[in-house]
Amino acid sequence: MKHLSKGTKSIDEYMRGARAKADQLALLGKALDHEDLIDYVIDGLPEEYKLVTDASNGRETPMKFVELHEKFLNREADVIHLQSASPTFSVMANAVNTRS
């Protein structure tokens, strides 16, 4: 679990993979504590998920895995939207600059 990394996987693939590995460990008699699983998941994420991880770390009671998965899915959608909107913005900025 220490080598868990999102890489190029979608957040859904990443979270399902993390859950599957945790389940495999439990079957082998080496169950992970819920908080440890969350920590491993968070440690394997890139910077763009920092807003969610900071919110998770600031809570008095830890988030459930399913709740965290949902928040990461929402964040992934935001990141994809921002990435797809960025080229349009730069094209528009160039058009405005060339007219000046």
Describe the structure.
- The protein is an all-alpha fold and 100 residues long.
- The protein has one domain (11-99).
- It contains four helices and no strands.
- Residues 93-100 have low confidence and may be disordered.
Q: Roughly what fraction of the amino acids lie in strands?
A: under 5%
Report the sheet with the most strands, covering strand number, pairing sense and barrel closure: none
The low-pLDDT segments are: 93-100
Radius of gyration, in Å, reads 18 Å
Number of domains: 1
**Topology, number of strands:** 0
Question: Overall pLDDT, averaged?
Answer: 85
> Would you list the SSEs in sequence order as H and E?
HHHH
Tally of contiguous helical segments: 4
Distance between the termini: 55 Å
Percent range for helical residues?
over 70%
What is the approximate shape? globular
Structural class: mainly alpha
Key features?
Retrovirus-related Pol polyprotein from transposon RE1; about 100 residues; mainly alpha; disordered C terminus; globular
